[in-house]
């Protein structure tokens, strides 16, 4: 893995070792023995379903939640027991949490004043931070005179203005509508490139994770199931959970303790088994539905064993068959990922 930005003096590594969090009264740990290395300058995303422990992990790194076990180091220094403001980490949450009675400039200047930065420097650094987030012309406004997206930009500017060792963000785009979210997502990617700072980003939105991250840590039930580049997670998922959480999957029972996962764009459809290319594997299926999704068609399949799946075809290419018709779906073994068969409850 290579960070998208060369490490600079503003790049710091974060090591999370055996970190757990037990909340009294919960049947199992909210975070359960998580170990993770974030490289200097890396854009790392915590991705996972609701309740999987993403926020709790980020909050332990930020210092708002004490650890039950384990340690967190920045550049080798154990920060696990430091107060949040001593950790030198910038934090942005889903809710903007700006000071409502302070102007944009004063909001962004606040962390510098707390750190007793000389007045002349404050002005220059606030201006640079506002330019970074495209808000130089909004310096004198109050938060309520800004849109949600603009308020979140102020929060970003305030979190990076004192040049922290890393920027931690918990669903920073969650409260915005889709268009603003896409726009601010591109801004965050650009900020990462320009600052060369280590970014830790939390989301349950797979598209956000895939497009922003150098690497993604997939959380499930308080544990990290897999850490990898977007491509590794998509092409080589190590568990069925990861395969099904990221993108669509066809899941086929295989001999023994494994099932195989094949992505919809890797399946070919044929009228009969004789048409399957040599060396390819195949399954019989019935087409259940065909949905036009903008630039492609999603062809729904029901396989002979009753499991559901799908094939993706770019719009403009001829459709192989109609709903209700029988087909044979084939794939090359090169394009399958074998993962352990999950325990009991699961029916292939
Ligand atoms: N202060 C708390 N006291 C008790 N339990 C908590 C506390 N904070 C979180 N939990 C529990 O810990 C588990 C993990 O919560 P967490 O907020 O880390 O999940 P998440 O992955 O961020 O979910 P979401 O995507 O919904 O934000 C959940 O079961 C949650 O109910
Ligand atoms: Mg959360």
Q: Could you characterize the architecture of this molecule?
A:
24% of the residues lie in helices and 30% in strands. It starts with 13 loop residues before the first strand and ends in an 8-residue tail after the last strand. The protein folds into two domains: 14-235, Rossmann fold (3-Layer(aba) Sandwich), CATH 3.40.50; 251-340, Beta Barrel (OB fold (Dihydrolipoamide Acetyltransferase, E2P)), CATH 2.40.50. With 348 residues, it is an alpha+beta fold. The model is unreliable at 1-7 (pLDDT under 50). The longest helix has 18 residues, at 178-195. The strands form four sheets. The chain has a six-stranded mixed sheet with strand order 6-7-8-3-9-10, with helices on both faces. Strands 13-17-14-15-16 form a five-stranded antiparallel sheet, with no helix packed on it. The chain has eight helices and 18 strands. The structure holds adenosine-5'-triphosphate and magnesium ion. Adenosine-5'-triphosphate is lined by residues 23, 26, 30, 48, 50-56, 204. Residues 54-55 line the site of magnesium ion (MG).
